[in-house]
# Entry
Amino acid sequence: MPTKDRVRSPFRTPSLAKTARGFAGRFGGRWGTVPQPPQWYTTSVQVCGVYPYSAGSARPTDGAPLGRDRRVGTAVCTDHESLYRAGVISSPSMMLFGINGVGKSSTAQTILLGQAARGITLGVHNPIKAGEHTALIRALGGPVWEVGPSASNHKINLLAPGPLGEAARRIGGDTGRELEHLARDKAIQLTQLIARTTRGEPLHDIEDAVLEALVDDARTRNARPATAHLLEAFSSPSERVLGIAGYNDAGAFYERHRRLGETLRAMLSGEMGRMLGGDADTVQYDPGNPGGWCFDTSAIPESNTKLLSAAMLSSWSLGMDIIDAHWELAKHERQLAERAAREGELYTPKVTWRGYSTLMDEFWYPIRACEGIVDRVDRLSRTNRSIGSADMKVTHSPKDMLSLPNPADREKARGLAERAGLLGLMALTREDLEMLSRVRSLTEKEIDTVAGFNSSPSWSKPKAPRGARRDAAAKPPAPPGAGLILLKVPERVGIEVQMLQTSVQANLHVTDTRYREQD
# Structure
C-alpha cells in the first residue's frame, strides 16, 4: 500500500522557545527591539494611583534632594543632619573631600539649600573665591560680613563682647552673668589662637597665662575694649599681670616676655593689624533672621596663609558665638512665653530656634598654620548634637590633615575624619583614597570608582550642536568628574551620586566670570 505524504496543516502551532523578547519561532511574535518604557520619579503617595506598575528605591529619600544614583538612576535625597535624625549616624557632621574644580562648593551648597528648605538656619564660613556662597546667603536674606585688611565695615575686634555679650545684656540675671563669663573665655581663647598663628609656632604655657591676664586687664580698663588695648596692657602691666608672670617690676617682665611683646606688635601692625583693628562690635546679627549669615574672606590672597588662617579662626569663633547666643535667646523667649501662658496672657517669642547647619570651607588652612593648633581648632570649630548644629568641613585632600609634620597633630586631625558621620568623596587620587582608607574603611571597588571620577573621555572639548549660537556668557563645559560624589557612612556600601543643580542655584554660584566673558 503506497504511503501518503504527510501534509503539514497551516493551523498547527509550531514549537516555540521562550526568550526575554518573547517566543522565538514561527508565529511566536518575538520582538527584534524592545522599546524602553518611559519612567517617572515620584513619591509613594503620588504613585499609588498607577499601582502595580511601580517599584521602590533602596536609596535614601529623606533629606536634601541631591541628584540621581549613577548606577540605577533613582533619586537620592539625604544629608548629614537628616541621617542623624534618622539614627543612621551618631553625629550630624560631614567631611567633603575633592580636588579643585569638581564642584565641592556646588555640592555643599546643594546640601545647605535642602537643609534651609526644612527651616534650618545656615552659617557659612570663609569662601575664598569671590561670589562663592555670598550671593546665596544674600538671596536668602542673610548678612554677609567681609573679613580682611581691606574691609572697611567689618574689622575684627578680638576683645569685643560679641553676640554672647549682647545676649547677656538682653537676658540678664544668672544666665546673663554666665554668658558674660563665656564671652570673656572665648576672647581669651581667640587671642591665644591668633597669637599662635601670627608667630607660626606654639606659645609657652606662661605666655598663654600672661595673655589671659592681658585680656582681662584690657577688658577691665576700657569701656569699649579693642584689640589694640592688648599692647597698652602689655606696655603698662598691672600687678596681677606681673604676679602671674612671676616678676616684681616691669623691666624684668619686659625682658622675659620680649618675644610675646613682638608677637603682639606683629598682630597689631601691617595687614594683620588692619584686619584686627576693629574698635567696636562690627558683626551685628539678628538671631530672628532665618536667612543665616556668611563670613567672606575672598579678599585675602590664598598665598597669605597666616592672614587667611587668622581670619578663619576669628570668623569660626564669632560664628559659634552667634549660634550659642541664638540658642540662649530663644530659650529665654520660650520661658517668657510659658510664664505668660501660666498667667493667662499671650506672649509671642521674638526669637525662635530652628537649628543650624554650618559650612567651613578650606578647612586645611588653619590646622597647618602652626604646630599644636589642631586640637584648639577642633574645639573652636566643633559643632555637634550638644548645641543642635550640624556641620560640614570642606577640604581638598586627606593629605591636608594626615600629613602634618607633628605626630600629635596628625592623630588629632585623623580623629576629625574618624568622627565625621558622613563622608563625601569627589574626584581624588588613588593615593589620597588609600590614605583615607586607613582612617575610614573603603572597599577596593569604592576606591576604583572615586579614582575614576575625573577620567576624561577624550582630549578635546565636546562639540556644540550644529547651528547652535555661541553665548559669550555661557558656562564652559563641566570638567570630568564634576558633580560626581560617593556618599559613605560607616560600615555601609557607598552611594554613587550625580549631583544636580537648579538654574536658580547655578546663577547664584558663579566663580569663573572671567572665563565666561572672554572672547
Residues 59-143+293-455+476-519 form a domain with the Rossmann fold fold (CATH 3.40.50.300). Residues 441 and 492 are 10 Å apart (CA to CA).
